[in-house]
Amino acid sequence: MYSEYISKLPFWSKLNSEEQIFLAEHAFEKDFDRNTVITDDDYFCLAIMDGNVQVCTIGDDGREVFLTEFGKGTCGVINTSILLKQLESNTISVARTYSELLLIDSRSFHHLIDTNIYVRCFWFETVAQNLQDSLSSIRHAMLVSVDRRLASYLIRTIDESGDMVIHSTQEQIAQRINSVREVVARMLSKFEKKGILSTDRNRITILNPEVLREIAQR
User: What is the pTM of this model?
Assistant: First the structure.
């Protein structure tokens, strides 16, 4: 039941009883299969109940450039059409795994923005934060070397999971660090020869996280 996610929205307590009922009545669930492009011109995402959604921009060469991502349990407001307008680029959101989203149609959410100052402020803050994260990702991809990006990604992943084993394909890692599979494969092989990690199909085991952190912080 998605009611628990609605009540976790940052602005929920700032809604009056009528606005809470309005939001609950107009929210709905929608499922997306893996690697499905999410078209959000007509609605806003209130929460990710399951799965993972990545926001990317498409370069002139057709390559996806990672901007930001949202995982299971995210409660807020996501709408990449706003980023598209701000970045003046072809920005899309993609369900990287099977995902269950809690949505609200654009007209209903704009009604809340127009009638509740707290929702309006939260929305402006969300747009600003998402834009900042996206610009930071673009800068990172342009100015930071691939080995640092890969090391940073691996360290962040084990820190978040608490597990030294990472289950991911080279293609998935390449998408995440804005590179290509061949480059990722070459860098992983380089790290493996130095005894920093070991690889086995779609599994990476971190053997020396201290050295990996040093690479990430160069």
Answer: 0.69
